[in-house]
Amino acid sequence: MHVTLHDIAKQYGREIVFRGVDLSLEAGSRTAILGPNGSGKSTLLQIIAGAIIPTQGTILHTLNGTRLEQEQVYTHISIAAPYLGLYEDLSLRQTIAFHARFKPFRQGMAPDALAKLAYLDHALEKPVSHFSSGMKQRLKLALAILSDTPLLLLDEPTSNLDAEAIAWFSQLLRDHADNRTLVVASNRQKVEFELCEGVVEVGSYK
Question: What are 4-48's pLDDT values in tens digits?
């Protein structure tokens, strides 16, 4: 997916989060949005996702040469972020099945296979509410990265992960980043954006 942002600005009240953002995210490109907490990188990521409307400017999502309408964008993206929750009353098996109703998994991956890949196969029947913060983060990342979507958005993906899980995330992303547009928002944790060639310093748009 190709995403074009032109003269994007976001303002809350009198606070200008950023302005004058011009970006062209080519299909298959890998871009890092960098900045400290509170800098606006999550807001910019959500604008790219179509989840937040910018105060100013235009955003265009194009897939295989066809412009997507706003309501079509969601089905073609996957996102994992600390502020996006899970349905905690569902079991892991139910969560995976529910997700697959809206976004199929890559290579027709079955729920059991996804759970095993995330090292969660021992918890298939357990409610997500009983998961540790690290287990929930692995689930979020697996659902996003393993979805068959052309645009993958990750916000501080190593949050709540220990060293072993960070290595797992890094390998999972390497295995499934090809042929899709990747955008990672990070507060400069190098392992989070080691695959990215392009860098956007969100603080430069104040």
Answer: 999 999 999 999 999 999 999 999 999 999 999 999 999 999 999
Nearest to 192 by CA among 170, 177, 161: 170
Q: Is the pTM of this model over 0.85?
A: yes
SS (H, E, C) the chain: CEEEEEEEEEEECCEEEEEEEEEEECCCCEEEEECCCCCCHHHHHHHHHCCCCCCEEEEEEEECCEECCHHHHHHHEEEECCCCCCCCCCEHHHHHHHHHHHCCEHHHCCHHHHHHHCCCHHHCCCEHHHCCHHHHHHHHHHHHHCECCCEEEEECCCCCCCHHHHHHHHHHHHHHCCCCEEEEEECCCHHHCCCCCEEEEHHHHC
CA 163, 156, 201, 24 torsion-angle sign: positive
Largest Cα–Cα separation, the chain: 50
